[in-house]
Write a structure and sequence with these properties.
There is one protein chain. 30% of the residues lie in helices and 21% in strands. The protein is an alpha/beta fold. The strands form two sheets. A seven-stranded parallel beta sheet has the order 8-7-6-11-9-12-10. Strands 1-4-3-5-2 form a five-stranded mixed beta sheet. Helix 6 runs parallel beside helix 11.
């Protein structure tokens, strides 16, 4: 195992962990060179099992024995040194710099799918990760995101998802017509005058259904709602007007995938 004891925090090889922004890691100008940071050994193992390519590890010395030998450098130091390098304390003591998978085509992701989630403008990384986890656990076949969403490969989103971002097919949606082209009916989760209860039998009659969740706070725009076949709501009690988007997604996924 190629273990490198950190003696210089300014090593160029450490830049992905310390000095590159999310946008710089993603490298939109050269997508094939894009990177992301994966946190916690449990999540890293899921990524490795899915075939994601590691570039290097950053590891507390006491966790070295937990890291598999992938033939890439493992940079190591005490917890305080790593916190000074990254600006935060490592979750379970391990980070992995990995290569971004190639973005998949919508038709490829939807080819065999029957129930999919669509995230429209969901920007919070924890909500994104939680929605992926719910989608995987409750039987959805794929997740699509508008390009205004948080990156599912954001460090925190990966961790909150418990690695399901590597297990569930996903890609970006450029317009809602792509769902129609692939034979999907659409149901928007929103509180409107025309919304039906989420357990309405009509919704379950569709062989292929896309469940659309909107941005935190504002929800889905009128433009999006006009493009959807159905609008559904989760009945509320005690004057509560809505659920957090991740909680609402879990309820909708459970009901519409049964």
């Amino acid at each position: 195992m190629n273990i490198v004891k950190i003696s210089d925090l300014m090593l160029p090889e450490l830049a992905p962990y310390a000095r590159l922004t999310e946008a710089q890691l993603r490298n939109r100008l050269h997508p094939a060179e894009g990177l992301f940071i994966c946190e916690s050994m449990k999540v890293i193992r899921v990524a490795l099992a899915a075939g994601v390519e590691p570039v290097s590890f950053l590891c507390e010395e006491k966790f070295i024995g937990d890291v598999p030998d992938c033939g890439v450098p493992m940079y190591t130091a005490e917890r305080e040194v790593l916190a000074a390098l990254t600006g935060y304390e490592l979750s379970r003591g391990v980070l992995c710099c990995m290569r971004r998978p190639v973005e998949r085509r919508v038709g490829e992701v939807l080819s065999d799918a029957r129930r999919v989630a669509v995230l429209d403008g969901v920007v919070n990384s924890e909500n994104t990760g939680a929605i992926f986890r719910a989608a995987a656990a409750l039987g959805l076949d794929a997740v699509l995101l508008t390009r205004t969403c948080c990156d599912p490969l954001n460090r925190r989103a990966c961790r909150v998802s418990m690695g399901t971002v590597f297990q569930l097919p996903w890609t970006y949606l450029d317009h809602y017509g792509q769902l129609k082209e692939c034979g999907f009916a659409t149901v928007a989760m929103a509180l409107t005058d025309r919304s039906v209860p989420v357990d309405d039998p009509v919704l379950k009659q569709h062989e292929r259904l896309a469940i659309i969740m909107g941005t935190e706070g504002d929800g889905l725009s009128d433009s999006v709602l006009r493009q959807c076949d159905h609008v559904a709501r989760i009945p509320m009690h005690r004057g509560v007007d809505s659920l957090n988007v991740a909680a609402a997604a879990a309820v909708a996924f459970y009901e519409l995938c049964r």
